Amino acid sequence: MRRRLLKGSALVAAACVTSLLATLAPSASASAAPAAPDAPPAAQQAGHGDRPALRRVGYFTQWGVYGRDYQVQDLDTSGTAARLTHLNYAFGNIDKSGKCFLTPVPGESDPWADYQRPLDAANSVDGTADTDTQALAGNFNQIKELKAKHRGLKAMISLGGWSWSTHFSDAALTPASRKALVTSCIDLYIKGNLPKDGARGGDGAAEGVFDGIDLDWEWPGSEGDADTVYRPEDKQNFTALVREFRSQLDALGKQRRTHYELSAFVPTADTKIDAGFEVRKIMKDFDFVNLQGYDFHVSGEKKTAQQSALFARNDFSVHGTVQSWLKRGAPARKLVVGMPFYGQGWTGVTGGGDGLGQPAAGPAPATWAAGYADYKELKPLVQAGKFKVHRDLLGGHAWLFDGTTLWTYDDPLVLAAKGAYVRARGLGGVMAWSLDADTADGELYRALDRGLGRR
Questions:
Q1: DSSP secondary structure letter of residue 359
Q2: Can you give the CATH number for the domain in which 55 is found?
Q3: What's the pTM?
Q4: Residues linked to residue 105 through DSSP beta bridges, in sequence order
Q5: Number of domains composing the chain
Q6: Which has the closest alpha carbon to 207: 265, 141, 159?
Q7: Where is this chain compositionally biased, Low complexity type (predicted)?
Q8: Which of 231, 235, 287, 339 counts the most CB atoms within 10 A of its CB?
């Protein structure tokens, strides 16, 4: 882990964030930010002077439509869709042959959620029920309806993720394999040529749903999930793969007189950046990258710690991540800062005090996964008085502690401060993982929007 100290302009930025937090927070144990009025649609937001509009990115999870019952329609009713510029759909997968695919494979691909599942009128963005004869249904059709209602919104297909980066290294290995991968992904998601299944799918069925591709290879050149292949040559191969995506997207865009965007999710650790990313080269081809601004520490560790601090001494932080990418040649305007809409939690915490930095027995119990809780799951615990909110105003982060269990998370105050940081530093915008963890009224994204400054 690279050790970082706050100095120079970082101290100034820290002071500004501290001031904002102090202004917004009624006390050090406050649990909610003041309500903000609705933001204008993304299409109506204009930049100041020559500065481009800040990106407001959010991930929509394919599986969230099941247990969490978070539908595309919820993006509209919560007000979040009006604030977004980019909706990232998680995830698309790559098969053993090195191509994008969308056929029914449990745990690997879910065309039912993507484009086959019919929605009734009550759960549809446009209030119309899907029929048995239409070629496109499911999440893809709802995204298309959402874009029709929010004209400034772009949708990106995110490829990979932690669990589905398995075959990226193999697919990127040669010029021929890279070309085959990119061609298959563009054919499936940009041209919308879906597998035919009864009335659903067919050539062009999903055309117009996606406006670009987001690469979530975790990680080129370094360890990721247990079955994910990685090689030393991934670093150069990733550069070549990005170039291939850019070339093919531009060629199609020229034919169709449009620009297809290309982005990526990229890591915070210096070792992972240096192992997998030729920063100056790839940033020429990316429209923007989403920086990992969370999971700095996770519930599997033996001691409690912050997972998403804005500033930190001798530890990972959002500011440290931004500086790592800047010093390697990434333009500030292309750096979009990731924010967590969930908490990392420990239980069996001993040592007293406020709980941070103390030994723990293991991950805290939660609804969907031990040690991982959506913000909308944590908020009622605070409201019921079961947890006290603690804040590090200089560090720009918060955590909950009840004497035994600790959750480190971002609440509306922290997110507003981070939005202000992004704007003050001239960065490219904000990204949230994931939108289904927000409240029904979009409280967290509203706070981010407030921090960025509505315009």
A1: B
A2: 3.20.20.80
A3: 0.91
A4: 109
A5: 1
A6: 141
A7: 31-46
A8: 339
